[in-house]
Amino acid sequence: MQNRTESLLQQLSRRILILDGAMGTMIQRYSLTEEDFRTPALASHPKSLKGNNDLLSLSKPQIIKDIHAEYFKAGADIIETNTFSATTIAQADYDLSHLAYEINLESAKLAREVADEFTSKNPDKPRFVAGAIGPTNRTASLSPDVNDPGYRAITFDQLADAYAEQVRGLLDGGVDIILVETIFDTLNAKAALYAIQDVYEERNIPLDPKEGGIPIMISGTITDASGRTLSGQTTEAFLISISHVPLLSVGLNCALGAKELRPYLKVLANKSPFHVSAYPNAGLPNEFGQYDQGANEMADQVRDFLKEGMLNILGGCCGTTPEHISALAHMAANFQPRKLQEELEETLD
Predict the structure, then answer these.
(1) Rg for the chain (alpha carbons), in Å?
(2) How does DSSP classify residue 154?
(3) CA–CA dist 183, 186 (Å, integer)
(4) Partners of 178 in beta bridges
(5) How far is it, in rounded angstroms, from Cα 37 to Cα 53?
(6) Do the Cβ atoms of 17 and 77 come closer than 8 Å?
(7) Beta bridge partner(s), residue 122
(8) How many CB atoms lie within 10 A of CB 285?
(9) I want to staple 74 with a disulfide (CB 3.0 to 4.6 A). Which of 190, 211, 298, 326 is the partner?
(10) Structural contact between residues 72 and 118, judged by C-beta atoms closer than 8 angstroms
C-alpha cells in the first residue's frame, strides 16, 4: 500500500491542492459559552477559558470534527489540526500548559479520523492532515518593552522545547504534514524547525519527504505594505533563512488579502526551490475587525496567481469559510500547478 507521503507528493505533481479555511471563523458560528470550553476536569479551573479554541478538541470534539468535515465537503484536500495555540507557551495564558501535549494528540486524532473517512469514500481523492504549529504569543527577535530593546520574553531553547512537545503530540496523533504557519518572526520559525529536526532524529524519520519523511510546510506572514515580516525580513530574506531544510512548501498566509499578497507571492514563485502555498485572508478587516470579502470576489483575486502558475497549494485564512474554499477549489481545478525547477528541467530534457 502506498504511504501517505508518496500519495501527497503524487497529488502535488498533478494538481493544485486545496487547504482548508479558518477554524476560528467557523467556531464563532456556534456562539459558544464559557461552559463549552470546560471539560469535567476543568469545571472549577480558576481562569476564564472562553476563546481558547484549541481546548475545544477536548471539550467539544464533535464541533471540531464537523468543521473539518465541512471543509472536506467544500473540496479541501488538506485540513489543519485545531492546534494553532497548542504550545505550553501559548497555553500558559490560561494556566493550561500541562494540557499542551494532550490537545495536540487529540486534535490530530480528530482530524485523522475525518480525513480517513473521506478518503475511504473516495480513494481517488486522498485527504491529508496538516499539524498546525502557530507562532506562539512571544517573539525571540523583538523586545516587548520599548524601554529595554535588548530584553526578550522568550529564549530560543524555550521555544524549541515547546515546539518539540507539540510536534510529538501531532505525530502521535497521526498527522501527514507538519505546518509551521503565520510566521511573523523567523527566529521563532527556526526554533520550530530545530525542534522538528530533533524529534525526527529521535524517531528515525527522514527529514526529506522524497526519502519517505513527514513533509514540512512553512508559511510566513507579511504584516504590512512594506512587504516585510514583523521582525523586518523581506520575502526573499525569509525564504533564504529557512531554505536549509528540505521543505515540502514555503508560502504566505494571514495579515493580507489575496490582492495585497500577490507581489510577495511572486517573489516566492520565482525563487523558491520548494512548492509554493498561499492562504490569504478574506480581504482586509473592516473597522470592526470583520472580514467582508465574499467567496467569489476572493476567487477572482486569486485567479491571477493561478494564471501565472504561481501556486501548488491554495487555501484561506482569517474570515474564510467552506463557501470560500469551495469557490477556490472549483477555480483551481482549471489551472496547472506551479512547476518546480527540477520538473522544468525534466520537461526540457
Answers:
(1) 19
(2) S
(3) 6
(4) 131, 216
(5) 8
(6) yes
(7) none
(8) 15
(9) 326
(10) yes
Tell me: the pLDDT tens digits for 120-131? Answer: 999 999 999 999
Kindly report the number of other CB atoms within 10 A of residue 280's CB atom. Answer: 30
Helix axis angle for 100-121 and 156-172, nearest 10°, is 40
* Alpha carbon separation from 164 to 16, 178, 196, 222 (Å, rounded): 30, 12, 6, 25
Contact 55, 15 (CB under 8 A): no
User: Residue 228 in contact with residue 222, Cβ under 8 Å?
Assistant: yes
Residues 6+ apart with CB under 8 A from 333: 15, 16
| pTM of the complete model beyond 0.90 | yes
Among 86, 69, 183, residue whose Cα is nearest residue 129 = 69
Whether 49 contacts 38, CB under 8 Å: yes
Enter the C-alpha cell of residue 139.
517573539
Q: What is the pLDDT of residues 242-271, one digit of tens each?
A: 999 999 999 999 878 888 899 999 999 999
By the 8 A CB rule, do 339 and 309 touch? yes
SS in 3 state form for 309-335? CCCCEECCCCCCCHHHHHHHHHHHCCC
**Distance between CA atoms of residues 91 and 7, nearest Å:** 34
How far is the C-alpha of 264 from the C-alpha of 292, rounded, in Å? Answer: 23
Alpha carbons 221 and 232: distance in angstroms, whole number: 11
CA-to-CA distance for 96 and 196, rounded, in angstroms? 23
Please provide the DSSP assignment of 269-298 as one string.
HHH-SSEEEEEEESS---TTS-----HHHH
Q: Rounded to 5 degrees, what are φ and ψ at 30? A: -85, -10
